[in-house]
Amino acid sequence: MSDSARWTINSVREAIGAKKISARELTAEFYKKIEARNPELNAFLALCPERAYAQADRVDALVAAGMPLPPLAGVPVAIKDVLSTRGVTTTCGSKILQNYVPAYDATAVERLEAAGAVLLGKTNCDEFAMGSSNENSAYGPVRNPAATDRVPGGSSGGSAAAVAAGLAVAALGTDTGGSIRQPGALCGIPAMMGSYGRVSRYGLIAFASSLDRIGPFATNVGDVATVLQVIAGRDLRDSTSTTTAVPNYRVEIEKSVKGLRLGIPKDYFGAGMDDGVRQKIEAGIEIYRKLGCELVEVRMPHTDYAIATYYIIATAEASSNLARYDGVRYGLRVDGNSLIGMYRRTRGAGFGPEVKRRIMLGTYVLSAGYYDAYYLKGQKVRALIAQDFREAFSKVDAIVTPTSPVPAFKLGERTADPLQMYLADIYTVTGSLAGVPGISVPCGKVGGKLPVGLQLFGPAFGEARVLQLAHALEQAGGASL
Amino acid sequence: MKISREDVLRVAELAYLELSEAELETYRAQLDSILEYAGKLNELDTTNVEPMAQVLSTDQAADATLREDIVVRSSVAKDVLAHAPDPEPPYFRVPKVIER
C-alpha cells in the first residue's frame, strides 16, 4: 500500500493543522497518484485542478491565520458524475450529456466544500447510474483495484475504485438499488446509503426519484460517519429532505454494541449465494455474537419479489425523469426533419443500450392497459416489502445480510443477459424500496483477494445504529476475516 | 412470446426513441424475458394493500413539504443558455413545430 492510500480524514486534518504538509501539497500528491493510476482504472472522467487548488489555498490560508479547521479541511474527495458541479463537466456517464456543464452545485457538493473538502474531480459510473458493474458507462468500464480484470461493481464504480486505490480519501456516490453499497463491497471499503430524506437530492441528476440517495465512500467507518454528518440534513431546495435531527455520528459509533439485537433474515441466505461469500458473512455474524449481540432469526417473506418490484418502479420513474433529454436545453442534439424527429434521433443516438432498455421497460409498465398490472402492482408489493422491514424492526435493532451474492466478477462475464445482471442487486434493492438506511462494511476476502461486504440495515433515520454496528465489526478485524 | 414487435414499436414511439432494426428485436426479446420474470408478482394477493406512492411517513413528509415562500435571486440564465445546443438568447431555438 502506498503512503497516500493510508490517508484518512483525521490524518489529513492533523497533518495540515500541524503544518506537516500544506493542503496544496497534498492536493498535488493526489493528482500525481491519479495521473499514474487512472489510465488503468478509468475511475475519473474529469479532473478540476483549478477548483481544487483554489480550495486548498483557502484551507492553507486558514492554517496560516491560525483559524479553527472545518471537519473536512483539505480532504481530497471525488464526486460521482451524476452530481452537478458548477463549471465542471457532468456527463452521467452518458454521451447525451458529453459536454454538459452545470450552472450550479448539488447541495451535497456545496456542503462538502463548505466543510473544507478539496474536490479533485468527477468519477465514472454506469450511464445515468443504471447498472451493477460500471460496464454501462459510455466512457469505458472502471477496473477493480483489488483485481484489475474484474468489475468494481456499480453504478458508483468510479467512486468506489478511487477510494479503494487511494486516489481520494472519500467520495460521494448515489444509490438507487445498491449503487453505493455493492461497489463498496466489491472494492473492499465501507459505503453508506442514508435513509430516504436524510441527504438532499438537489443537484443529483435524477434516475428514480423515490429511490435515489446520495452517500459516502471512505476507507473506514469513522470517515463515512464524518462525511454523512456533513451532507445530511434539511435543504430547502429538496422538499423530501427532512428536518429530522442529525445526531453526532462520530460520537454514536463509539458506543458498545453489547446487547443489541441483530436480525438474520433467512430469506436472504438461500440459493444463489457464493459459498465463499456465505462463509465470510457467517464469520462476520460470529464476531457480532462474540461482541455480545443477540442474534435473532427474522422472516422477510417478500424478499423474493424485490427485484421484480424494483425494476418496475425504477424504470417507470426513469422513463419519466429521462424525458427531459430532448436536445433542446442541454446536451446532445441530432437534427431531424421536425421537432419530434429531432427528439427521436437525439435520444436514439445519445442513450446507450441499458438506458434505452430501461426507458422502454418503464414506458411499457406505465402505458395504457399495463399500468395496473405492472406499475400499480409494483407499488403495492413495495408496500409489503416496507412492511417486512417495519415488522422486523419491531423485534430487532438492525438486520444483517450479505451486500452482494458474489464477489467481483470478471469484466464482460455478465453483460449478455440483463436479467442476470439485475439479480446482482438481490440483497440491496429491498432496503432501497423500503427507504431505510444501509451500509456495506468489509467482511473478509474470498481466496484472500476478492473483498466481501456485510450489509446492515437499520430502521428509517437509524443511521447512527447502522454506523455503530459497522464500526464494531471494523474494529474487531472484520476486513481481514 | 408476450411482447410483439408492434408492442416494441408502440413503446419506442411513446418514448421518442429511434431504434434500429437490430435494436427492435433485441429489446423485444429482453423485455419479454424481464416482464415474464416480473409476472411473479401475481403470486401475491394485494387486493387490500394500499400502493406505496410515498416513502416518507406522513409526519416526516409534513414537516418537509412546505417551506416559506421566499424570493431568492438567481442569475444562471446566461450560463444555462451558453451550454444549450442552439441558443438564441433569451430563447432556445428548435425545429419548426407548426407546419402550414
Looking at this protein, list some descriptive labels.
heterodimer; A: 481 residues; alpha/beta; six-stranded mixed beta sheet; five-stranded mixed beta sheet; 16 helices; B: 100 residues; mainly alpha; 4 helices
Describe the main β-sheet of chain A briefly.
6 strands, mixed
- The percentage helix of chain A is 25-40%
| H/E series of chain A | HHEHEHEHEHEEHHEHEHHHHEHHEEH
Q: What is the gyration radius of chain A calculated from CA atoms? A: 21 Å
- Tertiary shape of chain A: globular
- Structural class assignment of chain B: mainly alpha
The pair of chains with the biggest contact is: A-B, 75 and 55 residues
Radius of gyration of chain B using CA atoms only: 23 Å
Q: End-to-end span of chain B in angstroms?
A: 44 Å
Overall pLDDT metric of chain B: 89
SS elements, strand count of chain B: 2
Shape of chain B: flat
Largest sheet of chain B: 2 strands, antiparallel
Low-confidence stretches of chain B: none
* Spans where pLDDT lies below 50 across 5 or more residues of chain A: none
**Strand/helix succession of chain B:** HHHHEE
Question: What is the mean pLDDT of chain A?
Answer: 96
End-to-end distance of chain A: 19 Å
Q: Provide a count of the helices of chain B.
A: 4
Percent helix of chain B:
40-55%
